[in-house]
Amino acid sequence: MSRFLSKIAAPIALLALCCQCAQPRYDNPDDGSGSKDSEPQEIATPVDSIFQFTLKGEDCNFADWADYGVYVPADAKRIQGVLILQHGCGMEQFGLTRHYDLQYQAFARKWNLAVIETAIHGTCGLWGYPDKGSAQGLFKVLAKVAAKTHRDEITIAPWLLWGHSAGGFWTLGMLRDYPEKIIAAVCYSAAWDPGYEYNSVAAEVPLLMRHAGKDDGDASSKCPETAIHTFSSLRAKGAPVAIVCNRGQNHNLSYLRTMAIPFWEAALSQRLGAAGLKPLDPARTWLGDTTSFEIFKESGYAGDKSAMVRLPDEASAKAWKEFATTNVVVDKTAPSAPFDVTARQNGDVLEISWKADADVESGIACFNIYRDGVPVGRVPEAGEYQSYNFNGDNTYPVPAPAMKYRLLETPAKAIRIGVEATNRDGLKSSITEIKYKP
User: Fold this and answer.
1) In this model, does residue 19 exceed pLDDT 60?
2) What whole-number distance in Å separates Cα of residue 275 and Cα of residue 66?
3) For position 348, which CATH number holds?
């Protein structure tokens, strides 16, 4: 048994850290899909799968019980990978939220991924070790998801991993034990500095290690040491590993999602192959200096690379530089426009509904409603349509509100109704308009 289990104080201290600043749980089973089109549809639209499984008893020897939230996009011809989101100590108490997250769903639809979020109710000093049962629990859930959705490929699809704190410790254990299954991995303040030895297959996996320096937990969590030692060990093997220290943030505060998604996308674009996962193309990889934060194309760099971060491509290198210097990656592209806008009169109210895909990079902040080109409303009236906290990445509200707006009006003549999406970085889509005739 490792040094961690011999020190009960470490998981207790880390549980206290991870439970700060968390959002309340939401359990509403509604799928938040909004209203139906005003006209009957001759062809049924496939419905995305959103559900959960619970392991307990003999199936859950690593915890008291474990819940798993699942999202599977209906329009994927074949699931190419599974995004697995592993929480830290104590965060299970806030329940499952991220399989309802429209940003993660849009990311999953773009890349034909399933999403699985965990809520493991037990001691992180046990489930944090994949070889103590939590990995086998995941395999059982993957088999259940494959059977429920009639998608056998889910049991063999490779993974994208995210782990916070003890979940980052778990992620590193998965990298040690199942490197051939991992497309890329992100560790958010991974704890307890396991000192694992990684084989040559693990050295092909793109890995992002984030920590917050002296403000990253207490001394027993060893988050900076975990990041630095893992980075050094794998870079000595030439591995594509990046490290970021978010100074001014802490164990429970990070905008890591803004970096994780472009990092995963860069890995997905190169590693997926018909015959299995491929190593990164060395003609496309970039390097970053952890002191100056300057970035260089690897193929043209003649200096010592051993202490430099190594990233899949130029886009991910630019994102790393921005994240390392500003603690966030700002979306620079507008969201896609809403679609299937409808309007129907119901008494003295004109009911407007629409559909929209979240911005993969920055989600949805709000929708703006227009009448004849003039703004008349906002959904929601205040705040964000859907967001997440910056501790455990928990999503709220779940499910997202219906995409509807009630205009208190009975038009006497034809009017134009428009809907516009705004992402969390304030960029607006084009306005989708329809003409409503009373």
Assistant:
1) no
2) 33
3) 2.60.40.10
Rounded to two decimals, what is the model's pTM? Answer: 0.90
Per the structure, the complete domain to which residue 419 belongs is given by: 339-436
User: Position 395: which residue type?
Assistant: T
Residue 35's H or E segment, with its range, is: none
CA atoms of 115 and 119, how far apart (whole Å):
14
Bridge partner list, 37:
none
> Is there a single domain that holds both residue 199 and residue 77?
yes
- Number of domains the chain is built from: 2
Whether residues 264 and 402 fall in one domain: no
Does residue 197 sit in helix, strand or coil? coil
Same domain, 154 and 23: yes
- pLDDT for position 45: 63
For β-strands 159-164 and 182-188, DSSP reports them as parallel
Q: How far apart are CA 247 and CA 145, in angstroms?
A: 40
Residue-wise pLDDT tens digits, 119-155? 999 999 999 999 999 999 999 999 999 999 999 999 9
pLDDT in tens, 268-313: 999 999 999 999 999 999 999 999 999 999 999 999 999 999 999 9
> What tokens does 166 get?
């003890």
Furthest CA-CA distance within the chain:
76
Q: Could you say which of 326, 353, 380 is where a domain stops?
A: 326
How far lies 82's CA from each of 107, 184, 284, in Å?
11, 11, 24
Residue 71 neighbours by CB under 8 Å, 6+ apart: 48, 49, 50, 99, 100, 104, 105, 108, 114, 115
User: Are both 137 and 245 inside the same structural domain?
Assistant: yes
* Within a domain: 2: no
Q: Can you give the CATH number for the domain in which 269 is found?
A: 3.40.50.1820
Q: Are 81 and 113 in contact (CB under 8 A)?
A: yes
Q: If we measure between CA atoms, which residue out of 220, 114, 234 comes closest to residue 172?
A: 234
Domain assignment of residue 365, yes or no: yes
- Per-residue pLDDT for 17 more than 50? no
Q: Are residues 290 and 160 in the same domain?
A: yes
Tens digit of pLDDT for each residue in 198-240? 999 999 999 999 999 999 988 999 999 999 999 999 999 999 9
Same domain flag for 311 and 372? no
pLDDT in tens, 317-335: 999 999 999 999 999 999 9
**Position 332 in a domain:** no
Closest C-alpha to 35, from 427, 432, 360, 405: 405
Residue 333 inside a domain? The answer is no
